[in-house]
Design a protein that fits this description.
about 250 residues, two-stranded antiparallel ribbon, PuuD-like, 13 strands, alpha/beta, 9-stranded mixed sheet, 6 helices
């Protein structure tokens, strides 16, 4: 008789901030905070998973040993030195600790065979972690104006054409309308990855690993409330659970 599987445990990366930003008393202004946007975790709960926030001071590979999937959230620019370039004039805040922690999450997740989902910065970091580069700045007002923050978060402002046969196309169809909150994008594609979605101006909007359950998207699906990408994440995590259970039997 098989043992019922628990809800898959989905780990989320966050960002580091200061207590001053949430109105802490003056003496605690410099206290470090780990910040996690709740739409990521509520999306996983809605899809049947159990979310857990991952502090970047912990050992990434040790954490992944307990997880069934990893989600890399949006945030700051990735350090250009990680793909052989110097920071440009439009480079924003860089957090080397976060870069190192999340790259370790990606590497450990792939090694464990669990699904890895990268959102916005997360997609960019997957590409960098596996040997690719980034377009450091997309000019506002050109093409699809990817860096424009004029619209509400859940406003779908441009289409993405999806590659036939890809997981993304299976989830969304030939095209999907997305939001757009990024001034950087995937540049030189890393070995082992393939492009599965592009904006009308050619900017890479979705990538997938050729042999591992790894997906990156440049948009923010967590704000749409019930996006099928999180259903894929939880179902794939459950499948991974079942595979490990059978291997241990």
């Amino acid at each position: 008789m098989s043992v019922p599987l628990p809800k898959p445990l989905i780990g989320f990366s966050g960002r580091r901030g200061r207590a001053e930003s949430v109105g802490a008393p003056r003496g605690f202004h410099d206290a470090p905070l780990d910040i996690y946007m709740s739409e990521y975790t509520t999306s996983v709960i809605r899809s049947g998973g159990l979310p857990v926030n991952l502090p970047m001071d912990a050992d990434a590979s040790e954490l992944v040993g307990y997880l069934d999937a990893v989600v890399l959230s949006g945030g700051e620019d990735v350090d250009p030195r990680r793909y052989g370039e110097a920071p440009g004039p439009h480079t924003g805040w860089i957090d080397p600790q976060r870069d190192a922690f999340e790259i370790a999450l990606i590497e450990a997740g792939i090694a464990r065979g669990i699904p890895v989902l990268g959102i916005c910065r997360g997609q960019q970091l997957i590409n960098v972690a596996l040997g690719g580069s980034l377009v450091q700045h997309l000019v506002i007002g050109e093409g699809e104006s990817h860096a424009s923050y004029a619209y509400p978060r859940a406003q779908r402002v441009h289409p993405v054409a999806l590659e036939a046969g890809s997981t993304a196309a299976t989830l969304y169809g030939e095209t999907v309308m997305v939001n757009s909150y990024h001034h950087q994008a995937v540049g030189r594609l890393a070995p082992g990855l393939r492009v599965t979605g592009r904006a009308p101006d050619g900017v890479i909007e979705a990538i997938e690993h050729e042999s591992a359950p790894v997906i990156g998207v440049q948009w923010h699906p967590e704000v749409f409330g019930g996006d099928p990408l999180f259903d894929w994440l939880v179902q794939t995590a459950q499948n991974s659970q079942l595979t490990r259970q059978k291997a241990a039997a």
